[in-house]
Structure of Peptidase A1 domain-containing protein:
Amino acid sequence: PSQQTLYFVNATLGNPPQQFRLHLDTGSSDLWVNTANSQLCQEVPNPCALSGMYAANQSSSYNYLGSYFNISYVDGSGATGDYVTDDFNIGGTVLTDFQFGIGYES
């Protein structure tokens, strides 16, 4: 199999729903998304525009858990930020209080 093959899924986070195009990664334990003010999303052109950017202050169901989110990948990339919970909708199934990471540095 090609190591260049990527799979994506459309989902929403938050209430009201914020749209995301998520990369399915079977080798990672955590779902995580970037915030608009993350280092990566500040680049021009914005590489986060297609995948979506999470805005905690726009969700009534957001809950902060702590600033200990940290994920690293074999290629040396990764992200750090916060763990939070919010509504997660995938395929019409809503998971309330779903825990995920939000990346400020990625």
About this structure: Strands lie at 7-13, 18-24, 32-34, 63-72, 78-90, 93-105. The two ends are 27 Å apart (CA to CA). The domain at 8-105 is CATH 2.40.70.10 (Cathepsin D, subunit A; domain 1). The longest strand covers residues 78-90.
